[in-house]
Amino acid sequence: RKPQHTEAPKEEIRDIRAARLVDWSFIRENNRYKDWDASKPRKVWIGATVDEEGNLSDIRVVRKVEEEELNEEALRLMKALGKVEPAIDKATGEPVKHENWVITIPFPIK
Fold first, then answer.
1. Which of helix, strand or coil describes residue 45?
2. What confidence tens digit (pLDDT) does each residue in 50-67 have?
């Protein structure tokens, strides 16, 4: 007798509005390298987990630039920020945890 093949239940995919940083003024005002002298602008990609209240955890550099001081500064800024607007489940309108949230921190030239 042939065993029956059953598929594992698929994980439910929720339609969410991503967590977001609403007020960029903290980043602009506290960036130690906002006017750094370089030939081209840089962007450091930071990843984090955002809980239902907008608290950040597991903050890490996802995509680095050559200048290590910029990677460290982007990480410092996000750790100091501490909170963002949480992700929202579009079906329920309720805040939800957002893992693997990514944001770019810009370092423009003078």
1. strand
2. 999 999 999 999 999 999
